Each structure stands twice: as C-alpha cells, then as structure tokens.
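Private note to self, pasted from the team thread so I don't lose it. Backbone tokens:
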C-alpha cells in the first residue's frame, strides 16, 4: 500500500507505465477475492483507489507477520500499488464522496452482500448505469443475488466443499481435504479481472459499460477440470487419489531404497523410453500398459511392477541418471517437526531453495492431513523435478519420524533427549548430536507479551511464574491497573510450553485456567485485542502486542530484542534446529547449504527470526550491560572481584559488543562444533570492508564455582583459545582477558546459570 499514486514510470522490467495505464478503478472490496482482482489491475498500471470502512479492511489484522506500521502480510500481499481512503458508505456524506469519485472512474469493484449497494441507493440498474454509462461495475459475491443460495455469504473453505474441490483432494484414507491455499478466492479474483478486461474491450466497440456478476461458486466450479469432464463422460463420481494423476500413469511418487522420488511419464513414447532406461522394456510392450488408457485402467498392476523395480535403487542416484537421460523425475524431501518452524519459516525457505535452482514452485497444497503441506516444483518444460513435504507435529514426533525414515529432516526448538537420540541411533546408526547431523537453523526467543496500552513495562521472572500458575490474577499486584489478568499460552505439548515450564515454572504447574491456543499467531492477536491479557509467544510473533522486559532474581534485566536473543544471554532464547537423518541424501545436503547461504539467511530474517550472522550492539546496550553487572555484584565482594569488575568496565565502556558468544562445558577450554562454526562466521564478518575499522577484544567469563583466582584463570584460558582460533583465520585481535565470575548473565538460582555464565564475549573497538 502506498499513499501516493503509482509512478508513471515502468514497474519491474516493464518499459512503460503498464498495459492498463490511465485506467481508474474504485475498489470497495475487502479480504481476498476482490482485492486480488484489483491487485492484478494495479500491477499492470491501473490507478486503484481502495475505499475502506472506517475500521479498515479486516485482514490488516490477519497476522503475524506484521510490517512496522502494524499491517499484516495477508493484507499487504494483495493491496500493493493502491491508494487507500477511509469511507463510511452507511452515511449519506460517504455515498456522496463515492459518487464524486466515480465521475472519472472506469471500473467499480465491490464485494458487499448482494442488495447492499441497492439499499444505499447505489445500485447499478437503478442509479449507476444511468449516471455513469461507461462504468464497468463488477460485483464479487458468494452466490449472486438470486437462485437457491442467492444472497448468502460465501467463504473459500465452504465453497471448496460445495463445488467438489475438497472431494478430489487428499487420499482415500484421509477423505476430502481442503486445499492449503484459498484457491476459490484467488481464482475468483483472476476470473473477475478477466471479466473486467473483456467488458472494457466491449466498451471500446459500444461505448457502454457493463455489470459483471462474479460468484465464488461459479469460479470454483470452473476449477474442476479434468474431474468434471471425466464425470460427464463416464458417470463415475470423482474421488481423492492423492499423488497419482486421475488421467495419467505413471504419474506419482515411488519409494526407493534411500528416499521417495516422483516419476511422470505423460505420453506413450515417454513411457517406452522410461521402461527401456529401467531395463524393463517388456513392460511397455505389455498390452495392459502399451497406451496411457491401459496404464490408467491397470494402474494397480503397473504400480506393483515399478515399486519392485525401484525398491533396491538409490533414489538420489537414480533421479540424477533419469534427468540426465531426459526423463522427468523429481526428488522428494520430507520434513516433520514443530509448527512454529513449519508454519512461518520453512515454506519460505523451501520456495527460495527451489526458485534458486531455476525451478518453478506451483504453490503449497494441503496434504493428506490438515498438518501436512506439499510443494511441487517443475522445470521450464513443466516436468516435476522436486517435491517437498512439511508435516507440522511436535519435536518428539519429528525424531520418531526421522528414525522411521518417514522424514529426512526433523524441525525442533530443542535438542533431542537421551531417549529420542537413542531411538534414532538404533534405527539409523547415527549420532544426532554431531556437526554432521545437528544444524542450527536460526535463533528465536519466547516473549511475554501484553496489550500495547498496558502500563507494565517489566516483570520479574517469579511474577511471571505466579501469573501463569494462577497465584497472581490481577494487574494491580504487579504495578498495573485494577484489571483481571487473562493468561494465554500454547498447548502443553508444544516446544514453547515445554521450554517455558522448564525455564520459568520450575516445580510449579501452569494453572488450568490458562487458555491454550494452537499457534503463537492466535495468542498475539488475542493479546493485542484484550487490554487485560498476557501471553507467551515466539519473539517473531509479537505483532501488535508489546513484549515485556524480563527481570531475573539478582536484578539483571533483559529486553526481548533481537540482539539480546542473538547473544543467547536472553533467558528464554532458543535455537531452531534441523536434524538430518540417514547419510548420503543429496537433496538434504543441497537444502542445508541453501539455508546457510546469504540467500537463506535473508529469508530467515524476512520471516522474523534471528539469523546466525553476527550483529554489532549499540552504545545503549553497552550501558545496559554495565548497569546489569553492577546490579548482579555481590554485596561484599572479594577484592579481586572488585578489581576484575573495574578492569571489565574499562575494557567495554567505549566498546560495542558483537553478538557472537562462545560457551563451554565445565572444566573445558575447547570449542565445540557450534563454537567452531561461530568462529568462521565471525572471521567472515570482520573481513568485510565495512568492518575493517574494528579491533576485537576477547573477554572470558566463568561460573561461580571454585575460588575467584581459579575462575579468572580458566576464563582467561578460554579467551585465549577463542583468540587463537580467530587469529588463525586472519582476524586482528586486541585485548585478551579473563574476568572470572564478573558480569553474569544468569543468576545463581537459575539452573542454567553455570552454562550461561561460562562464556567468551567479543567486543569491538576502533
């Protein structure tokens, strides 16, 4: 959305103002079908003026994600290149403004309930046709104004069911399944744009406008090819077939020894070539399979033959050979795991990966269950090349799926526990917690959110615990207004809930009165709408709510910001993991390389998550850390502590912290695999021309175990190890020092405090 009319210059690769430049469109539509239509017109140069009700198009709130103005991506995606004006058509003054705007307009698009325009004295036949004879008026509705369902509202999912789209999607086992995207709404928008363009063409001949009556029902019915044509010819009711094509065979996925692949043979010569390649030329000469019609009729017998042939093949190598031979075959990649990753981040990463290979993703479709989604990508000739499946489960289920070879990658917000790791070890013979199989995808944190008007800015961890335990039930108990607290959280078996229970709740239980919702997005929307509410979401889902600062028992305060999470000092930070299963899966390796590339990092940041790339902190952060160090100091410190504290203050007072942090096992000075990877990222970051001005100070810290002298000694050894690794990679290192148990980032009563505090920080000076 913009506040100014589209530029008269070309858009994208266009060399003109667009094919529809000079066309003026008044857009009264909301949600998706109508806005999608006017988006198509605006993309090609039309001037679109969107007239919204005073409260705005309701999909402005359909998020997260939200932009910095608070508008949801759902709204932004279909309202680009438009000007927006608030207008109340229920009032005479609003209707008068609309009539004035129509004086210079070519097209009016609206999706009010049929009869609404007539009720307001704006009906096409009664008013608009006579006053604006060249106007093209397009109405988008569920069923039109007349007929058995005339005047009834229409919704995409309901229409998918009514017209039969759900009946042909899914499998025999799953039954009818909704397509994953709002296909009826989108198709109606496209058909409406076509209708408007045809009406404008007719106006060039006759000089007269038209009324285009577009319905979701009719447009949905138009999408039923070839199933409707099949039914009209053979009288057989279409049924869900899953992956197989109803009119082609073979056109489906097959399991090989190492993975599943997708095979398509769209004509008889291709099938003969396919069989010759596999060394089963006799199958193509079998009268049952010699023609496509015969193969479709005898699909079961053909599938058995091909499954036996593929059973001992390495699917990755077979696919490579088939593609080299000019045969259409595509690799499959299956992922399972936590919904926060599978919903928000992974689809964007997959689309970027496929597009980067020069393939054309077709759009995400519903799988055989509501938790499953599938993306297919094709080459320039329309041949399937890659398929990716995402199943949104929990972390535990993902590790089981990995061990049972039902998933190639497990998406998780935690490391596997001993039982889960042992299960994969027994099944696949691999150790998941190694650099070869454990991949940190991104960083995230859990944010405690409140309504933006709530005056409470920070809460102690024990206050948060008591609120979720049901001990504190009114905001006035924590310095807020006299208002009951409504508490919202994820399901108890979600990764977010498990982490919160472990790090915050301790031995206390979350109260039964806490409302459990299925996604962070739902929690964020509810909190932003209810002044008395509090919720727990991933930091990327804060949306229009506001995140509270968290205060530890010893006074350390943590904003829920990206930099704080990136340092991994934030008490509710979490890593997003991708665990790979069996070795030798080339598609998995390709995808993981993409995720770690600059293009993958950009997708991660655009999705609202925190990438692993180093980040430079602010002066404000430095001051905040020095203040926290003072708060956390013991009341009667060892004189050596006091000196170390003074040394630390001098070292960082004029410095900026780099987000990269290295942590160590107790008694160890060696970097683990994650630490080694971080050294590489830091070295690459500091070698960039814009960062050549920096010199790196390497500062070590310890837990509070043992005498202070021992603490300082081991912290210095760890700092020296990191400095050595950086120097080996060409980084200019300045000061190297250890400060022992100074400036802790976790209080002593925190079970994770020793691990958190055994660390090496990097600070930059010029």
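Design output:
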């Amino acid at each position: 959305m913009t506040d100014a009319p589209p530029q008269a210059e070309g858009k994208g690769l266009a060399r003109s103002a667009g094919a529809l430049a000079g066309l003026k469109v008044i857009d009264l539509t909301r949600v998706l079908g109508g806005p999608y239509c006017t988006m198509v017109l605006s993309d090609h140069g039309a001037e679109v003026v969107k007239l919204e009700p005073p409260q705005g198009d309701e999909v402005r709130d359909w998020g997260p994600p939200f932009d910095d103005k608070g508008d949801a991506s759902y709204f932004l995606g279909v309202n680009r290149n438009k000007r927006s004006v608030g207008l109340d058509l229920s009032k005479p003054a609003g209707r008068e403004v609309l009539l004035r705007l129509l004086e210079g307009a070519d097209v009016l698009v609206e999706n009010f309930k049929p009869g609404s325009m007539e009720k307001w004295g704006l009906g096409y036949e009664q008013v608009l046709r006579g006053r604006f004879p060249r106007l093209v008026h397009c109405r988008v509705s569920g069923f039109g104004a007349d007929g058995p369902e005339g005047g009834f509202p229409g919704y995409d999912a309901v229409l998918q069911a009514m017209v039969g789209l759900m009946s042909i999607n899914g499998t025999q086992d799953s039954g009818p399944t909704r397509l994953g995207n709002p296909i009826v709404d989108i198709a109606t928008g496209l058909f409406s744009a076509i209708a408007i363009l045809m009406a404008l063409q007719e106006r060039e001949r006759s000089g007269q406008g038209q009324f285009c009556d577009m319905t979701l029902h009719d447009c949905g019915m138009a999408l039923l090819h070839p199933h409707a044509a099949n039914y009209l010819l053979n009288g057989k009711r279409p049924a869900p077939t899953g992956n197989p094509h109803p009119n082609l065979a073979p056109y489906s996925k097959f399991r090989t020894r190492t993975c599943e692949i997708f095979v398509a043979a769209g004509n008889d010569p291709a099938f003969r070539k396919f069989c010759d390649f596999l060394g089963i030329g006799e199958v193509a000469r079998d009268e049952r399979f010699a023609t496509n019609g015969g193969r479709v009729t005898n699909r079961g017998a053909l599938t058995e033959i091909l499954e036996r042939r593929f059973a001992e093949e390495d699917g990755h190598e077979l696919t490579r050979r088939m593609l080299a031979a000019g045969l259409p075959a595509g690799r499959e990649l299956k992922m399972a795991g936590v919904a926060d990753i599978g919903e928000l981040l992974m689809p964007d990463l997959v689309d970027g990966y496929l597009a980067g290979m020069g393939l054309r993703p077709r759009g995400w479709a519903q799988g055989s269950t509501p938790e499953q989604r599938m993306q297919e990508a094709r080459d320039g000739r329309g041949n399937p090349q890659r398929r990716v499946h995402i199943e949104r489960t929990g972390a535990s289920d993902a590790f089981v799926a990995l061990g049972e070879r039902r998933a190639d990658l497990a998406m998780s917000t935690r490391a596997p526990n001993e039982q889960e790791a042992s299960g994969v070890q027994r099944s696949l013979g691999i150790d998941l917690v190694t650099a070869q199989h454990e991949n940190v995808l991104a960083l995230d944190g859990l944010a405690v959110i409140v309504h933006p008007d709530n005056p409470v800015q920070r809460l102690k961890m024990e206050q948060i615990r008591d609120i979720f335990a049901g001990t504190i039930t009114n905001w006035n108990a924590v310095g807020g207004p006299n208002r009951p607290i409504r508490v919202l959280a994820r399901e108890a078996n979600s990764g977010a809930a498990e982490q919160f229970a472990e790090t915050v709740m301790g031995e206390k239980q979350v109260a039964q009165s806490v409302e459990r919702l299925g996604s962070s997005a739902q929690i964020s929307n509810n909190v932003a709408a209810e002044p008395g509410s509090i919720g727990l979401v991933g930091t990327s889902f804060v949306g229009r709510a506001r995140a509270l600062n968290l205060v530890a028992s010893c006074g350390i305060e943590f904003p829920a910001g990206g930099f704080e999470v990136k340092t991994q000092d934030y008490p509710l930070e979490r890593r997003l993991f991708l665990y790979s299963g069996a070795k030798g899966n080339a598609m998995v390796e390709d995808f993981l390389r993409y995720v770690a590339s600059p293009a993958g990092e950009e997708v991660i940041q655009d999705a609202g998550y925190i990438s692993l790339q180093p980040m430079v902190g602010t002066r404000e952060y430095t001051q905040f850390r020095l203040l926290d160090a003072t708060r956390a100091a013991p009341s009667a410190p060892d004189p050596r502590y006091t000196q170390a504290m003074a040394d630390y203050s001098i070292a960082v007072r004029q410095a900026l912290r780099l987000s990269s942090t290295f942590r160590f096992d107790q008694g160890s000075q060696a970097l683990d695999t994650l630490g080694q990877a971080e050294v590489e990222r830091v070295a690459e970051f500091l070698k960039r021309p814009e960062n050549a001005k920096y010199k790196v100070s390497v500062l070590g810290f310890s837990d509070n175990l043992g005498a202070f002298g021992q603490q300082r000694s081991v912290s210095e050894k760890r700092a020296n190890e990191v400095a050595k690794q950086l120097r080996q990679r060409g980084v200019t290192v300045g000061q190297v020092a250890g400060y022992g148990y100074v400036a802790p980032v976790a209080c002593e009563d925190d079970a994770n405090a020793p691990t958190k505090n055994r660390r090496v920080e990097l600070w930059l000076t010029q």
